Amino acid sequence: MYPDDYEKALHYMIWGQWDDLLVLMVRTRDNILAKKIECFLHAFHYPNHEASLYVSHENLLHYIDHAHATTMQAEYYV
What we know:
This protein has helices spanning 3-15, 18-27, 31-45, 50-77. It is mainly alpha-helical. It is globular, with a radius of gyration of 13 Å.
């Protein structure tokens, strides 16, 4: 697990640092996180509907929250 990647992704999303989010997408080893970031950035840069942007944003936040909680839980048990 890579808890720093989840913290960075959340930070970049909050502050709108899309270039850094793109770099994180390329460098992370978590394929699901990379795919969620890709979907969000695609929806942000090519907005067909505002609803698709909202859904991709919520999906990414939900995954970051879930993965970060799971990672932190695993660290406590080790």
